[in-house]
Amino acid sequence: MTSFSSLPQEVIDIIITHLIHRDYASCVLVSHAWRSYFTPSLWRTVRVVDETANNCLKTQQGRNALARYSQYIREFETTYLGLVFYLTIARPAITKLVSLTIRLKDHRFSKLTAKADQAGDVPKSVTSSVIKVLKNNPGLRSLNLDRGCFRYKDDEGAFEFLTIAIPTARLERLELSFFDSHWARDLEGAAITDSAATASSITYTNQFLAGVKLLLPINLEQDRFFSLKEIAITGNGIKASSMDPIRLSFLVRCPNLERIRLDRLDHPTMACLPILLKMACHRLDCLELTNCTNDITEPLVDLLQASKRGWKELRLPSMYALTRLGLAMLLDTSSETLEVLRIENAEDLLRRDTVGLLSSTTRLRRLEGPSDGQVTRFTSELTVDAYENYQEYVDGQKDRAWAVGPSMEYMQLSIQRVPRPDVVCRQGGRHLTFSQEGLDADLRFEVQRWIYTQLSKMTCLKELVLGKMDLDPELLASYIDPLLSSSMDPIAYEEALLMSYSGRGFQYLTMEFSLESGLDILEGMKELRVLDVRRTAHNIGVKELEWMHINWPKLEKIRGLETERGWSVHRGEGKEFKAGVDAWMAAHPRGIGSSFYL
After folding, report:
1. SS3 for 393?
2. Residue 59 falls within a domain, yes or no?
3. Which of these, 43, 117, 49, 127, lies nearest to 83 by C-alpha position?
4. How does pLDDT run across 471-500, given as a tens digit for each residue?
């Protein structure tokens, strides 16, 4: 039998990479030989956070172990103020970190032990300690610091000194958080009047420009972050004093920045940030914005003009901040570059605007909306009016054919206003309270075939999401019996939502995915893995499953297949229809596509 130690080193290295941290801890106890193999991996990542901090350093044995194996530490994370001080006096020093995370905002009142204070080796400020750790590790590639690291006793100049000390040689990712849970205001429902926001923006922008002119020579004297590709900045919500925008002037030293993620930024900072990005970050093409206030329309439009190359990836929380004019500007500058677009709430986006988006973007790979658990009663998905889109095509008013094609891998969309004369009642048996007035029932299949034709261009599509996303579980529980959930029977779910979440329970006038309606037009989508038709009036039966088995060989699952077709006039067929589908699925347990049975 071949022993582990007799294996070639290359094979041992491969085996080690497939183990988890708990495995390393077990392996070092096997023998002295195994200890030599697995000790470097065991100590590669050290996390000393929250309740684990005291256990790590309260004994001399723990401190000795940290010192003994410091040469192996590459990734370090702590929320413990005492450990930051300890790192500055520990011998030998940790000098080979590639990733460092220090989050101290919840430890602002932490005190040093009397013994450490008497030693006389403890720095007198948090920032000085962090700076020393940074200078000891010039090879850092990822750095994550929060506002607890940015202060001296009087907080004067701490952040500026710290940014100068950040190693520039290899740093690829930088995350800075100014968020303070002790006094930050929640963004939800927060609002500033437009006049107040505008006045504040003008005042801060003028002050900011003056400050930038003063600091620009100083910043340009410092080393550039030539390797830095990604920055994440978390502000402190709407409180203007939470973050001085001038602190971000170091961005002029980031000429190769490609991606920026912004969270909880206040209005003044949002107004000033585009100035820096336009000035220096000419490779920027990816933006992710979360938790914004309701008054950043103008700053956001300015921010969207900050990319010199055109946006490649764009993730926005909602359309109320962008406005339709902002979307038109975005498409004008980025229609040929945009690959990923996520809009969590499209409440202010018209259906024809969505068609304009699909008709303009030629390189789009992912179109994303809200995810499960994000949806509230007011959330609106990106929506296409199928009937209007078809009529414009027939009348020749505009070229409304979708430009999205083979590059598309993920599409999340709500397709509405499809003529469905077969839909006569709700899932629970109640008469429909909405009519199909204005929809020509004779165009039922023509409208669907037009949409199928547009979808068929996406020959590399892996996931098609046309179903209803699950509601926020907390809001759902406040309106529905907590014992119920969104995973309940579709009929019971819709009936429970009927009064409180009108329109969120089920979607009736939409694609049916039957062969009769033109499903065969999609035979070229050979890469499709997931089809999501949850809580929609689809007509996927045994015939359709057999077709998908042959034509979509990689199809793994259909979310929302469990329909009884209860909306149909032929309601008596519902149980038989469902029984046939269930029997087919039981006979194909590994997946729907033929590739699972080769």
Report:
1. helix
2. no
3. 49
4. 887 777 776 665 556 567 777 778 777 767
